[in-house]
Amino acid sequence: MSKFHLTINTPTRKFFEDDVDSVVVKTYDGEIGILKGHEPIVIPVEVGPITIRNDDNVKRAYIAGGFMNVMGDIVEIFSDDALWPEEIDTRRAEEAKMRAEERMRAKKSQEEFIRARAALARAMARLEVAEKGQKAMR
Length: 138
Description:
The protein is α+β, with helices and mostly antiparallel strands. It contains 2 helices and 8 strands; from the N terminus they run ββββββββαα. The chain folds into 2 domains: about 5-85, Sandwich (ATP Synthase, domain 1), CATH 2.60.15.10; about 85-135, Up-down Bundle (Single alpha-helices involved in coiled-coils or other helix-helix interfaces). The chain has helices spanning about 90-105, 110-135, and strands at about 5-10, 15-20, 20-25, 30-35, 40-55, 55-70, 75-80, 80-85.
């Protein structure tokens, strides 16, 4: 398979950089997969898992939204945060999920509900990536 260069940056680190076969991310319109030769695009990326394929190796990680720029054989993703499954504190993510669910039930304001829903999405995405990462390691 033909490769392209993928870079994933957060404000605190260069999370990933390598030549890869494909990357799949979640967008507001659904998942999008990128292969070498994809048309140029700049697209918002939603909170969720990211799947990176390189030869027979498949890596999954969590990204906290952001945007992706595809230009020629270079793909750059900029996100507020990105974590490998082993970097995710599942106990902390479970606690964050419970807090967000409680805040959503409280229905204090529409703004608080929207913030709680976003926190819930982040916690659930972390748990999903951590769970699938643990299964892959078994």
